[in-house]
C-alpha cells in the first residue's frame, strides 16, 4: 500500500487507484462529477483538480508545480505529495461550481435529487454564494427517454456518467451526447428508448437531478427516507441493496456497493422488485380449515396447532410420513429453525427444497455483471442445510411424486414467491391427496385454498436473516418494515414453533447454527464507501 | 414550454424521413477496407449519405448505424456534433457564408444582411421555393478573399453586396471545374437518389 | 510553395519535372532512423501552431511496433489561416512527398489526411494527386522498389474547429465526436485505433522533402535560433495584398502588413488598430499608440507592438501565446473593438467542444457578456469579469484537456487588457437608461424578481454610468 501525502496528511492508499479515489476513501471531501470508480476516467468536469509537487526541472527539488492536475486521472505513487487545501485549488472549485449553476434551473424545491444532489452539496461546501451572471439562462428540454426514466436536461451537468454506463457496463449504448459546446445534451435516438435490464443505475449515477426514475418521481423527499441494508431476493446472485423506506412503506431500492458481487450496480429486477410487498392481494390472516369451511384463527394458537398436527401425523411411527418443503425464498436461519423443529418431532421426516423458479438463461454484460436465470435468493443455502441435516431429503418434484404415491400424511409447504407460482394443476392434484396440508405463503393460491392450515408469510423486506448466493457467499439482510398487520414474521413463527420465548433474532440463530455449521460463523458484509466516494 | 416533456420513446414514420438506396449503401461499403474499424467509416458514410439524400434524416442515421454496426444514438451524436451535417431538408443550393473576423472586417455582416433580405430566410432556414438554404460558418480558410461564401461546392471570393444579384442569378453559381474524384458526389436535387 | 501560379502545378508531371519526388527516392535509400535524425538536427518545429519539434515527436514512437498511423492535420480552421489550403490546392504533390518520406521515417502503414469538410475543391485536387501518386508508384506496395508499403487516404471532416487538435482529430477519424482525449497516453504510444500514431500539420510535412533534398545546412541558413527554416505567412483584412507568402521565420508583423513582398500596406491608408498575428487564439497586438493611461502618450510604455518578430519565441514577449499559425488579420482603426470581441468570443463559444466545464460554460458566458457590451449595456465590472473568466480556463493552468480553452481565453484577456481604455470609453458613453432597457430585454428574470445581492446589475461592480475620470488606474 503506497503512502502518499494529501494536504500534509499521510495516508495509505490502495495501489493503482487515482489520487481522487484515495482521498475519498480517506474520508476527504473532494468535489467531482465525471469520475466514478466503476467507469472509464474522462477527466472532463475539471472540478477535482489538485496541486502536486514535482521535481523542479533545474534543481530537481520537489516543488509545487505551477499548474493544476486532475486528481481522477493521476494514479497514486508512493511518496507523492498533493494538496487540495490551497487558494488555487479552491478558486478553481469555486469557479467551476459557478459555471455549473450558470444554466442550471435551481428548481431544487421540485427536484427529486434534492438532498442527495452533488450540485447542492458541492455548492454548499465549495461554491460561491452568488452568481455573477446577469444574462438569461438557456433552457434545455425535459425528455421522456424510456419506460422507466425521464431526462430533465436543463439540470444536466454533462458529466457523461450515464453515457459511459450504457456503453461500458450495459453495453447497449442507448444514450449519447448530442450537439456541441454549451448546447451539449444527453439524448436517446428517438424510437430507441433507454431500455435495458440495468438502465435504472443511470439514475443513481446521475450526480444531479437530470435523470429521474419514474417509479420514484415526486414520491418522497429523500431526507424523509431511512435506508436499510438488504439483499435482493430477485435472483440467486445476491445483489446487495439499500431499501429506502419510511412509515409509508418502501419507496425505492438502490444498489449497495459490494466488491464481491454487484459492485455499484443492480439490475432493474432488483430495483423494481419490491412492489409485491405492498400488494393488496397479500394474505393477511391465518386460516384453519376443518373440512370445507375455513375459519380465522389467532396467531397465538398457531404454534401449538401446527405442532399438534405434526405430532398427530407422526402418531406411533417415526415420522416418515411428514414432509417439509423449504422454499429457496427463505432465509437460512428460518429454514434451519423449521427443519430442526420438524426433525425433532418427526425424526424421519423428509426435508425438501422447494420450487426453484428459473427464467431463461443467465444474462451477462460486458464488464461481468450477471443477471441469474434462477429467480430465488437462497437455493444454495437450503441445499447446504439439507446436506447438513441429512436423512430423507428430496426436491420439489420428489415431494410431488411421493405425494401422488400417497407417501405423506402431512406436508408443510413454505412459499414466499413474489409472483404466482402454483400454476400447474399437478401441484394441487398431488398435494390435494395429503391429509394434513400446511401452506405458508405470501399470496392466495389454489394450493393455499386446499390447506388445512394456511399461514400468511412476510415478505423479505419484513424479515431478517441471510441468503447464500449462487457462489456460496452468505450475506445477511436486515428488516426494513414491520410485517403487514395480521402477519407474523416467518422467523418469529418458527422461533415460537420451536418452543422458544421472546423475539427471533437472525444473528442469535446464526450463532447457534455456527456450532453445527461453521460456515455460518461469519457472514459477508461488503465494506461501505464514504458518502460521495462514488 | 419548459415544463412539458418531449417524447423520445417513439418516432413516427413521417419523422423518419427518406432513407438510403442500395447504391449509396454499396458506396459506403467501399470505404470499409480503408479503416481498421467500422465506426471510422462514419464520417465518410455521412458525407456520402448527405450527398445523396440532401440531409441526414433519422432513417439515414438508422441505416448508417446498421451498416456500421453501431447503436443509432452514436450516429446521432456524431451528426449533431459537426456543423456540416443538416438534420432537416435543405434547399437545392446551400449558401455557407464565412463570418470569421477577416470576413467580417471586409463586409461579411453586410453581405449576410443582404442575403437574408434577398432570400427572405434566416440562418439554417430554407426559402419557400426550396431553392436556397443559408448558413454561416466560422471560417472557410479563404481569408485572403474575404468576404467569401460557398454555394454548394463553389467558393465565391471577395463577395460584395452589389455582386449578390449577379451571383444568385447565375445558374452555374454552384459548379466547380475540377477533375472530380468519384468518392463524393456533387450535391443532387433534393429527393433524387443516386 | 514554389509552384503557386505555375500552370497545372497540381499535376504529377509538372511536379516531377522540377525535381519532385527526388527527395523521396533519396530518402527511401536511407534508413528510417537517419531521416528522423536529420529532422531532429534541422529542429523542424511543427507549423500547426504549437511549435513542437517534429523529430522529437517521431522519436516518441515505441520500438518494435507493427502498425503505425500518420495523421496529416489538414483541418485548418484557425481564423484567419489559409496557408495549408494554398499549399494543397497549388502544390499537392509536395505534401504527398512529405507524407511519403515522413511515413517511411516513422514506418507508417497507413496515412490519413484529415481534411476539413469545407475544402471541397481542394479535396478533389488532392484526391487526384493521390491517384496520380498511386499510379506513379509513390504509394501502395513496395514503393520505388524499397520494399516499403504505404497507403494514403483522405478523411473528410465536417465542420469542427476542435478536430484540428491532435487527439480530437484522432477521435474524429475513428468516427466519434471530436472530443480531445486525456493524455497520457500520448498519440505516439496509443493514438488512432489504439495504435502508435503521428499527427503532423500539412506545412510541417511539406518541409520534410526540402530538408532531405537541400540538406540541414540550407535549412539552418533560414530563420534564427530556435526558429529555423521557412514559414508560410498569411495576411488578411484590409491590406493591399492579402494572401499567403513564404518567408524565413522571424519577419516582423510590420513587415507582414507593410512589406512590399507581403501585405503591401493598408487599404486606403488607414491606420492599424490591432493585429491578431498568429490566428485568433494566440492573442492580439496593438497596432496603434493608444495611451495606457488617460492623458498624453507616454513613449516609455505606450508603443505599438508591430515590431513583434514572427518566430517561435518573440511573440511571447508581447503577451501572445506563441507563433500560432503565423496568419495575421489586421483590424483597422475605424472598427469598434467591441465588434472584435463579439466575433472572437462567438467563434470560441461556437467551437468549444463542450467537454471541460470551464471552456464549455466560460466561453459561452464570455460570448454573452461581449454581446451585452456591444448592445450598449456594459458595466466596468464586466471587464474584470471577462479577465477573471479567461484566467480560469486553459490547458496551461491545468483546467482543460486541450488547448482550445487557452485559445479562447487568451485573445479575450489580451483584448480586455490592451484595449481596456477603449472599452471603458464605450461604457462611459452609454445611455444608462437605454442600458437598463437592454438588460431587461436580455434577462427579464433578473429584474422581475426582488433584487438579491449579487443578482442585480447595480449591486455587483457598479452602474452603467461611469465618469471617464474614474476609470483610469490610480490617477
Give an overview of the whole structure.
Chain A is an alpha+beta fold. Chain A contains 14 helices and 26 strands. Chain A has an 8-stranded mixed β-sheet. In chain A, strands 1, 2, 3, 4, 5 and 6 form a 6-stranded mixed β-sheet that branches. The relative contact order of chain A is 0.10. In chain B, β3 and β4 form a beta hairpin. In chain B, α3 packs antiparallel against α4. Helix content of chain C is 40%, strand content 12%. Chain C starts with 11 loop residues before the first helix and ends in a 27-residue tail after the last helix. Chain C has 475 residues and is α/β, with parallel strands linked by helices.
Q: SS-based structural class of chain C?
A: alpha/beta
Determine the number of helices of chain C (DSSP H or I, runs of at least 4 residues): 18
Which chains share the greatest interface? Answer: B-C, 51 and 64 residues
Low-confidence stretches of chain C: 449-475
Secondary-structure-derived class of chain A: alpha+beta
Round the mean pLDDT of chain C to the nearest integer and report it. 86
Mean of all residue-level pLDDT scores of chain A: 93
* Low-confidence spans of chain A: none
Question: Any idea what the radius of gyration of chain A is?
Answer: 28 Å
What best-fitting shape of chain C do the alpha-carbon axes yield? globular
Distance between the termini of chain A: 21 Å
Write the layout of secondary structure elements.
The complex is a heterotrimer of chains A (534), B (194) and C (475).
Chain A: E1 3-6, E2 9-12, H1 19-25, E3 49-55, E4 62-64, E5 69-70, E6 81-83, H2 87-102, H3 118-126, E7 142-144, E8 149-152, H4 161-169, E9 175-178, E10 185-188, H5 201-205, E11 211-213, E12 226-231, E13 240-246, E14 249-255, H6 268-272, E15 287-289, E16 294-296, H7 302-314, E17 322-326, H8 332-345, E18 350-353, E19 363-364, E20 370-371, H9 379-389, E21 393-395, H10 396-404, E22 410-414, H11 425-432, E23 436-441, H12 446-450, E24 453-456, E25 465-468, E26 474-477, H13 490-497, H14 506-516
Helix pairs in contact in A: 2-3, 7-13, 8-9, 8-13, 8-14, 10-11
Chain B: E1 5-7, H1 13-16, H2 22-29, H3 42-53, H4 58-67, H5 72-81, E2 93-98, H6 101-105, H7 108-119, E3 125-126, E4 132-137, E5 149-151, E6 154-156, H8 164-169
Helix pairs in contact in B: 2-3, 3-4, 4-5
Chain C: H1 12-17, H2 22-29, H3 32-42, H4 54-59, E1 69-74, H5 83-90, H6 92-105, E2 110-115, H7 121-135, E3 151-156, H8 166-173, E4 197-201, H9 202-220, E5 223-224, E6 227-228, E7 230-236, E8 243-248, E9 251-252, H10 253-258, E10 272-276, E11 285-286, E12 309-310, H11 314-317, E13 327-332, H12 337-351, H13 357-374, H14 380-391, H15 404-418, H16 420-428, H17 432-442, H18 445-448
Parallel strand pairs in C: 1-2, 1-4, 2-3, 7-13
Antiparallel strand pairs in C: 5-6, 7-8, 9-12, 10-11, 10-13
Helix pairs in contact in C: 2-6, 2-9, 3-6, 3-9, 5-6, 6-9, 12-13, 12-15, 13-14, 13-15, 14-15
Amino acid at each position: 500500500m503506497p503512502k502518499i501525502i494529501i494536504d500534509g496528511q499521510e495516508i495509505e492508499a490502495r495501489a493503482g487507484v487515482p489520487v481522487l479515489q484515495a482521498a475519498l476513501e480517506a474520508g476527504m471531501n473532494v468535489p467531482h462529477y465525471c469520475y466514478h470508480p466503476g467507469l472509464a476516467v474522462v477527466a472532463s468536469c475539471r472540478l477535482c483538480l489538485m496541486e502536486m509537487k514535482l521535481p523542479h526541472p533545474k534543481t530537481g527539488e520537489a516543488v509545487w508545480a505551477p499548474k493544476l492536475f486532475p486528481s481522477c486521472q493521476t494514479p497514486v505513487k508512493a511518496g507523492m505529495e498533493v494538496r487540495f487545501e490551497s487558494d488555487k485549488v479552491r478558486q478553481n472549485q469555486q469557479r467551476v461550481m459557478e459555471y455549473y449553476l450558470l444554466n442550471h434551473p435551481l428548481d431544487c424545491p421540485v427536484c427529486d435529487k434534492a438532498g442527495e444532489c452533488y450540485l447542492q452539496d458541492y455548492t454548499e461546501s465549495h461554491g460561491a454564494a452568488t452568481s455573477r451572471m446577469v444574462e438569461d439562462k438557456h433552457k434545455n428540454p425535459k425528455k421522456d427517454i424510456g419506460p422507466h426514466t425521464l431526462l430533465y436536461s436543463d439540470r444536466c451537468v454533462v458529466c457523461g456518467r450515464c453515457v459511459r454506463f450504457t456503453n461500458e457496463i450495459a453495453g447497449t449504448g442507448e444514450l449519447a451526447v448530442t450537439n456541441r459546446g454549451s448546447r451539449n445534451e444527453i439524448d436517446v435516438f428517438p424510437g430507441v428508448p433507454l431500455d435495458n435490464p440495468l438502465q435504472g443505475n443511470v439514475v443513481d449515477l446521475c450526480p444531479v437531478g437530470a435523470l429521474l426514475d419514474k417509479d420514484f418521481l415526486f414520491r418522497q423527499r429523500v431526507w424523509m427516507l431511512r435506508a436499510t441494508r438488504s439483499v435482493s431476493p430477485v435472483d440467486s446472485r445476491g445483489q446487495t441493496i439499500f431499501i429506502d423506506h419510511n412509515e409509508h412503506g418502501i419507496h425505492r431500492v438502490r444498489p449497495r456497493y459490494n466488491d464481491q458481487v454487484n459492485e455499484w450496480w443492480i439490475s432493474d429486477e432488483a430495483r423494481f422488485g419490491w412492489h409485491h410487498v405492498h400488494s393488496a392481494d397479500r394474505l393477511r390472516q391465518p386460516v384453519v380449515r376443518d373440512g370445507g369451511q375455513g375459519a380465522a384463527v389467532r396467531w397465538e394458537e398457531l404454534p401449538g396447532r401446527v405442532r399438534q398436527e405434526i405430532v398427530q401425523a407422526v402418531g406411533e411411527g417415526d415420522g416418515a410420513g411428514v414432509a417439509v418443503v423449504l422454499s429457496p425464498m427463505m432465509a437460512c436461519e428460518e429454514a434451519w429453525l423449521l427443519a430442526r423443529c420438524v426433525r425433532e418431532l418427526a425424526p424421519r421426516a423428509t426435508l425438501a427444497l422447494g420450487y426453484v423458479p428459473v427464467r431463461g438463461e443467465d444474462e451477462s454484460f460486458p464488464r461481468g455483471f450477471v443477471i441469474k436465470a434462477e429467480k430465488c435468493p437462497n437455493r444454495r443455502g437450503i441445499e447446504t442445510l439439507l446436506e447438513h441435516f441429512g436423512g430423507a431429503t428430496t426436491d420439489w418434484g420428489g415431494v410431488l411424486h411421493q405425494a401422488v404415491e400417497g407417501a405423506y400424511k402431512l406436508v408443510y409447504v413454505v412459499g414466499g414467491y413474489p409472483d404466482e407460482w402454483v400454476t400447474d394443476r399437478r401441484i394441487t392434484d398431488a398435494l390435494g391427496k395429503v391429509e394434513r396440508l400446511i401452506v405458508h405463503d405470501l399470496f392466495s393460491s389454489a394450493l393455499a385454498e386446499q390447506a388445512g392450515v394456511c399461514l400468511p408469510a412476510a415478505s423479505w423486506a419484513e424479515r431478517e436473516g441471510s441468503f447464500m448466493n449462487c457462489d456460496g457467499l452468505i450475506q445477511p439482510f436486515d428488516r426494513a418494515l414491520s410485517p403487514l398487520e395480521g402477519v407474523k414474521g416467518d422467523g418469529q413463527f418458527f422461533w415460537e414453533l420451536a418452543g422458544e420465548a421472546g423475539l427471533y433474532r437472525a444473528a442469535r440463530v446464526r450463532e447457534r447454527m455456527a456450532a453445527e455449521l461453521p460456515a455460518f460463523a461469519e457472514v459477508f458484509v461488503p465494506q461501505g464507501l464514504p458518502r460521495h466516494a462514488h | 414550454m419548459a415544463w412539458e416533456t418531449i417524447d423520445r420513446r417513439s418516432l413516427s414514420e413521417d419523422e423518419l424521413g427518406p432513407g438510403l438506396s442500395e447504391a449509396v449503401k454499396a458506396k459506403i461499403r467501399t470505404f470499409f477496407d480503408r479503416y481498421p474499424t467500422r465506426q471510422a467509416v462514419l464520417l465518410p458514410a455521412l458525407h456520402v449519405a448527405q450527398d445523396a439524400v440532401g440531409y441526414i434524416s433519422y432513417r439515414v442515421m438508422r441505416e448508417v448505424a446498421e451498416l456500421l454496426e453501431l447503436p443509432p444514438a452514436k450516429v446521432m451524436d456524431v451528426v449533431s456534433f459537426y456543423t456540416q451535417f443538416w438534420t432537416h431538408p435543405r434547399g437545392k443550393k446551400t449558401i455557407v457564408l464565412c463570418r470569421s473576423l477577416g470576413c467580417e472586417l471586409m463586409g461579411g455582416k453586410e453581405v449576410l444582411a443582404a442575403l437574408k433580405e434577398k432570400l427572405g430566410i434566416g440562418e439554417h432556414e430554407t426559402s419557400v421555393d426550396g431553392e436556397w438554404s443559408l448558413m454561416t460558418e466560422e471560417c472557410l480558410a479563404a481569408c485572403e478573399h474575404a468576404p467569401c461564401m460557398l454555394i454548394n461546392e463553389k467558393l465565391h471570393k471577395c463577395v460584395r453586396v452589389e455582386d449578390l444579384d449577379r451571383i444568385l442569378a447565375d445558374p452555374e453559381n454552384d459548379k466547380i471545374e475540377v477533375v472530380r474524384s468519384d468518392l463524393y458526389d456533387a450535391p443532387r436535387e433534393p429527393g433524387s437518389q443516386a | 510553395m514554389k509552384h503557386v501560379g505555375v500552370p497545372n502545378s497540381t499535376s504529377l508531371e509538372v511536379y516531377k519535372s522540377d525535381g519532385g519526388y527526388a527527395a523521396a527516392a533519396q530518402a527511401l535509400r536511407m534508413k528510417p532512423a537517419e531521416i528522423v535524425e536529420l529532422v531532429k538536427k534541422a529542429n523542424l518545429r511543427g507549423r500547426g501552431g504549437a511549435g513542437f519539434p517534429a523529430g522529437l515527436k517521431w522519436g516518441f514512437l515505441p520500438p518494435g511496433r507493427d502498425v503505425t498511423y500518420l495523421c496529416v492535420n489538414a483541418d485548418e480552421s484557425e481564423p484567419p489561416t489559409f496557408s495549408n489550403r494554398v499549399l494543397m490546392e497549388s502544390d499537392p504533390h509536395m505534401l504527398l512527398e512529405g507524407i511519403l518520406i515522413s511515413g517511411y521515417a516513422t514506418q507508417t502503414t497507413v496515412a490519413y489526411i484529415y481534411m476539413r469538410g469545407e475544402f471541397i475543391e481542394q479535396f478533389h485536387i488532392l484526391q487526384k494527386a493521390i491517384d496520380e501518386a498511386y499510379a506513379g508508384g509513390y504509394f501502395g506496395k513496395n514503393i520505388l522498389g524499397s520494399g516499403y508499403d504505404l497507403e494514403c487516404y483522405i478523411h473528410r471532416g465536417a465542420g469542427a474547429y476542435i478536430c484540428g487538435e491532435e487527439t480530437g482529430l484522432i477521435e474524429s477519424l475513428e468516427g466519434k465526436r471530436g472530443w480531445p482525449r486525456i493524455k497520457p497516453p500520448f498519440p505516439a504510444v496509443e493514438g488512432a485505433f489504439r495504435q502508435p500514431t503521428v499527427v503532423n500539420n500539412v506545412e510541417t510535412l511539406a518541409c520534410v522533402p526540402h530538408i532531405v533534398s537541400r540538406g540541414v545546412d540550407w535549412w539552418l541558413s533560414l530563420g534564427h535560433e530556435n526558429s529555423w527554416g521557412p514559414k508560410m505567412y498569411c495576411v488578411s483584412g484590409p491590406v493591399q495584398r492579402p494572401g499567403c507568402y513564404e518567408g524565413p521565420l522571424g519577419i516582423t508583423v510590420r513587415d507582414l502588413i507593410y512589406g512590399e513582398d507581403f501585405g503591401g500596406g493598408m487599404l486606403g491608408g488607414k491606420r492599424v488598430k490591432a493585429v491578431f498575428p498568429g490566428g485568433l487564439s494566440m492573442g492580439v497586438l496593438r497596432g496603434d499608440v493608444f495611451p495606457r493611461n488617460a492623458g498624453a502618450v507616454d513613449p516609455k510604455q505606450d508603443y505599438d507592438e508591430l515590431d513583434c518578430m514572427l518566430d517561435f519565441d518573440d511573440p511571447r514577449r508581447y503577451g501572445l501565446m506563441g507563433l500560432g499559425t503565423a496568419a495575421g488579420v489586421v483590424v483597422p482603426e475605424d472598427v469598434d473593438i467591441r465588434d472584435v470581441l463579439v466575433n472572437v468570443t462567438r467563434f470560441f463559444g461556437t467551437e468549444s467542444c463542450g467537454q471541460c466545464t470551464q471552456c464549455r460554460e466560460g466561453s459561452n458566458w464570455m460570448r454573452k457578456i461581449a454581446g451585452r457590451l456591444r448592445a450598449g449595456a456594459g458595466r466596468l465590472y464586466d471587464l474584470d469579469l471577462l479577465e477573471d473568466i479567461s484566467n480560469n480556463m486553459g490547458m496551461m493552468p491545468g483546467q482543460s484537456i486541450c488547448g482550445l480553452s487557452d485559445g479562447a481565453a487568451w485573445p479575450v484577456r489580451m483584448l480586455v487588457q490592451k484595449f481596456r481604455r477603449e472599452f471603458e470609453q464605450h461604457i462611459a458613453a452609454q445611455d444608462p437608461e437605454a442600458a437598463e432597457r437592454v438588460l431587461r430585454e436580455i434577462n427579464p428574470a433578473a429584474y422581475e424578481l426582488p433584487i438579491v445581492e449579487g443578482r442585480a446589475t447595480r449591486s455587483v461592480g457598479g452602474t452603467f454610468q461611469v465618469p471617464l475620470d474614474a476609470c483610469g488606474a490610480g490617477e
